[in-house]
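Input.
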Amino acid sequence: MSGIPGSLDSIPILGILFQFIGYALANLEFISNTTVAVAVPITLAALCGVLCERSGVVNIGIEGIMLTAAFVGWFIAALAANALGTGTPTPYFGLTLPLVIGLAAAIAAGMLVALLHAWLAVTLRIDQIISGTIINIGAAGFTGYMYSLIASQSLVGAGSFSKLVVPPEVEGVPIVGWLLNAVVGQGPIGITTLVIVVMLQIMLFRSRWGLRTRASGEHPRAAETVGIDVVWLRYRNVVASGALAALGGAWLSMEQTGGFNAGMTQGRGFIGLAAMIVGRWTPVGAFGAALLFASVTGLSQSITISRPTGDLGNLMNPVPGEFWEALPYIITIVVLAGLIGRSIAPAADGVPYERESAT
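Output.
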């Protein structure tokens, strides 16, 4: 590889490592852009999990919420576009009335599904893992069936949100330019995600609501004795978390692609849960973990599109492309396995809460 001293490049094993580092640096711009984009839905899924589990409710139905929101957002936006016309996109983010209507519908759908989970888990106190599993299976079946019906109708989509364009003068600045483009050059949902991470981190650890939420997840009985309505707080937080997961689903169908495909979430909800655990149930930590997992996707896509040359290329060429597609999931499992026993969930996480009788 260019830029690597020949003496280092020729050392067995160590030389391959230096070639790999050189390849990653040479493609750093593409990898960073892909990483930040891929991290958006994973981060939103992780934040959904943080908000639920800090309240004491396990939610593995994030995948189903995202898939439902992705379908509803795309479908409602398409219906609005066919009824009202696509309209003229705004200069920033390409906003149109059908897209805004579709996004609102996606958020509402995600909150409704989350409300179902809250009712099953908090009011009926059924097993929260089973509740989330029901939501995942139901969402996959419902969206897949509805999409198969709609696909034959030749419904014209409403398009997608556009990315924020960094000025060429700024983008041309070495290192700073492409780094800023990777972070800021996102659509409205991507930009909003960065804001939500910061706001939720501050609110969770620096506000009365955050203190009550953490108390509800750690010791609900004690929280109730000081006047906190644990049941109502869990309801609110689970429903609000549905809006976060819904944004992740809407990103897939309304910002990344402008269309819907059955099962298009591809496990991002579960990877988001992994990011939540790796990030120790904190918004900033979850975001960092999401970037870690997304960077593997960025690297695998770079290798798929532009294979390395030299000895590194000869080593990687026999590896089938399916391996690179599966690599992010493999890394997720490996990282989680290394954290077993080290990352501790809130004490009352997943434990149904029942008020004591007044008598």
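DSSP finds 16 helices and no strands in the chain.
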